[in-house]
Amino acid sequence: MLGRERPAREPIQDPFQDSLANATLCGGPARLNGRWQDHPVQDMTGSSLKILLALDGSDYSDSVARAAAQLFSEAQQVFLLSVVEPPTGPGAEPGMEGEVIKAEHDRLDALHSSLAEAHFGGRDRVQSIVMDGKAAQTICSQARSLAADVVIMGSRGRGRLESAFLGSVSEDVIHGSEVPVMIVKSTKK
What is the structure's pLDDT at 170? Predict the structure, then answer.
């Protein structure tokens, strides 16, 4: 058998052939359009690309915006999305909810403006969206309704045990999104 060539086989149909979902979640080579590539995200550049940045308003939002700007500098449209979940629990006082939510909307609008200026050269192709709701569900529905090509979001890097108890928005978006999701891993300071 050594030295003999193997007979040609029919190519196996890859259900992810036209999707970058598997490519954006791994750090190494991934299959894209029927061939293996080391950095498939680079194939998603172009002037018609729409990216959705899901930002939680934390210190990590700047890292997410910086990574998106570097990887997708030629994107036609950039949507900065933050979701405000109504306050619940022991500290939530009746009647204060509206004031707290309005203050959070204002803070996130200001954050979006500064990120647009710092990383995307202003607001020409950037749209700021601040919504109320459940974060993962809202991110997935907005990605669909905006026809985004990719969702980019951060991960705080909680361990498995902590994520199991507290939940993980990024994990819920990965499983619920119809478009590829890129996670920008935070570095602990």
Answer: 87
